[in-house]
């Protein structure tokens, strides 16, 4: 605790010097972060493979390139993001300079997750750097190879005066949370998020919580079954299902389910061969504890395994698995699966599907597969979710111009691109006024009179407000 307090105190002292404020400093740090990734790509790939057996294809796509794209976006747009935002004025403020200024919050804490252990640290860090903050960075101890690499590389590339990496498990994290931060950014489970919110409340610290939940995939109306199954299977079994935006379950009619099942079998063989355990393109579960949790869910399920079901504890392997005859009270429907198990739940109509969704917590993502645009729009307008994508899965999360975040139980706040910059910034309302028109200002001074009030109400009316 004392060592952590010293780190936080040191960063706060540095922040107060103003060293992180100039755009030149921020740009330099972002470019150094870019160099960190590009100069150590193979070491990053090795660490990700050691932690999760990530194939290079998936690691490049979802860890390396997503961070590089985020960096390019921030570097290209930072100058415009930092400019004052001038606002509309009424008659009473016509001669004043009125603008919103983005200023850094101070010393922020970023707690990463194990499923994408590189990008879930770097992407929020990009926002924090772009906004001009100092940061304490806490990688996940559940992915130890990537954690160790970040502990080594970040101090080599970024300013050690402004950014610090700390290691440890739950006890060390709880001790870290006793310090006062100006913002806490957490990616992970709802259970830990509650602990973080309680700790943050002591210091009235604002939080961003990137959580998850059971993101559904609705399939209704006419649809190209082969294309739909390919996109669904890729999104679900990417990273062995260990993605917060992975389709958690399918909601469809019995007829659609029957049409999908043969195609799912064929598709999974195409993707991972008849022996997925031997495929170099299929990840592993991150730890024995997570493997056991998934196998217990599958054991408790009353559904019928149609595809997969095989497992190997020593290898932390669970085959791509599809389960049917799953009802809403099934064990697989009680919590986020976060693994390569896909339950299929049937309902008679899209209206019943919408009722099913709205009776549950709001998910981080909602997917709708259909050729009928009116049906897609109906689901879009009748439901609430962190993000929404039709006829595909998870790819919306990689677009830096989109806000990424949940709603309700799936999260609080958002980031990526400009949204990350805004998350780590305070928007200060600034009015610069001189000494002119003091007679007009006299209308507000006592003794109060009805005619003064009438004039003031007229000068401050929204009807007389200019729009920028």
From TrEMBL:
Write out the GO biological process terms: aldehyde metabolic process
Q: Which residues form the active site?
A: 210, 244
Boundaries of every Aldehyde dehydrogenase domain copy: 22-429
Tell me the SUPFAM superfamilies matching this sequence: ALDH-like (SSF53720)
| Pfam families cross-referenced by the UniProt entry | Aldedh (PF00171)
- Looking at the UniProt record for this protein, which Gene Ontology cellular component terms does it annotate, in alphabetical order? cytoplasm
Q: Which GO terms describe its molecular function?
A: 3-chloroallyl aldehyde dehydrogenase activity; aldehyde dehydrogenase (NAD+) activity
Coiled-coil regions, chain positions: none
Assigned keywords, A-Z: NAD, Oxidoreductase
Q: Which InterPro entries match?
A: Ald_DH/histidinol_DH, Ald_DH_C, Ald_DH_CS_CYS, Ald_DH_CS_GLU, Ald_DH_N, Aldehyde_DH_dom, Aldehyde_DH_NAD(P)
Which PANTHER family does the entry mention? Answer: ALDEHYDE DEHYDROGENASE (PTHR43570), ALDEHYDE DEHYDROGENASE FAMILY 3 MEMBER B1 (PTHR43570:SF2)
Family membership noted in the UniProt record? Belongs to the aldehyde dehydrogenase family.
Name of protein? Aldehyde dehydrogenase
Instruction: Give the organism, scientific name.
Output: Takifugu flavidus
């Amino acid at each position: 605790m004392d060592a952590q307090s010293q780190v936080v105190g040191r960063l706060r002292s540095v922040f107060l010097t103003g060293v992180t404020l100039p755009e030149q400093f921020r740009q330099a740090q972002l470019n150094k972060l870019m160099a960190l990734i590009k100069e150590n790509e193979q070491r990053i790939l090795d660490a990700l493979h050691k932690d999760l057996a990530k194939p290079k294809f998936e690691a490049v796509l979802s860890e390396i390139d997503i961070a590089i794209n985020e960096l390019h976006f921030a570097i290209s747009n930072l100058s415009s993001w930092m400019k004052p935002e001038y606002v509309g004025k009424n008659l009473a403020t016509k001669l004043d300079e009125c603008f919103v200024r983005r200023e850094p919050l101070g010393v922020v804490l970023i707690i990463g997750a194990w499923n994408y252990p590189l990008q879930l640290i770097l992407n929020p860090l990009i926002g924090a750097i772009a906004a001009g903050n100092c940061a304490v960075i806490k990688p996940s101890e559940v992915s130890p190879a990537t954690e160790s690499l970040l502990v080594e590389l970040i101090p080599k590339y970024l300013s050690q005066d402004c950014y610090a990496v700390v290691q440890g498990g739950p006890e060390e994290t709880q001790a870290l949370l006793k310090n006062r931060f100006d913002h806490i950014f957490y990616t992970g489970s709802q259970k830990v998020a509650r602990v973080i919110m309680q700790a943050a409340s002591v210091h009235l610290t604002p939080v961003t919580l990137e959580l998850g939940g059971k993101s559904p995939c609705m399939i209704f109306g006419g649809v190209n079954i082969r294309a739909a199954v390919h996109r669904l299977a890729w999104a679900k079994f990417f990273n062995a299902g260990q993605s917060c935006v992975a389709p958690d379950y399918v909601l469809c009619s019995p007829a659609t389910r029957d049409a999908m099942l043969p195609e799912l079998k064929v598709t999974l063989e195409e993707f991972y061969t008849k022996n997925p355990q031997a495929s170099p393109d299929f990840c592993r579960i991150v730890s024995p504890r997570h493997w056991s949790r998934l196998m217990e869910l599958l054991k408790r399920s009353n559904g019928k395994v149609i595809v997969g079901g095989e497992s190997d504890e020593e290898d932390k392997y669970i085959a791509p698995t599809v389960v049917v005859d799953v009802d809403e009270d099934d064990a697989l429907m009680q919590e986020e699966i976060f693994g390569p198990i896909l339950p299929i739940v049937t309902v008679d109509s899209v209206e019943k599907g919408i009722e099913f969704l709205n009776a549950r917590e709001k998910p981080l993502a909602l997917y709708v597969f259909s050729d009928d645009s009116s049906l897609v729009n109906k689901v879009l307008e009748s439901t609430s979710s962190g993000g929404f994508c039709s006829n595909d899965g998870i790819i919306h999360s990689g677009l830096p111009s989109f806000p990424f975040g949940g709603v309700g139980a799936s999260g609080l706040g958002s980031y990526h691109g400009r949204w990350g910059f805004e998350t780590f910034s305070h928007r200060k309302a600034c009015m610069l006024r001189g000494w002119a028109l003091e007679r007009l200002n006299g209308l507000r001074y006592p003794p109060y009179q009805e005619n003064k009030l009438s004039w003031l109400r007229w000068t401050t009316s929204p009807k007389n407000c200019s729009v920028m």
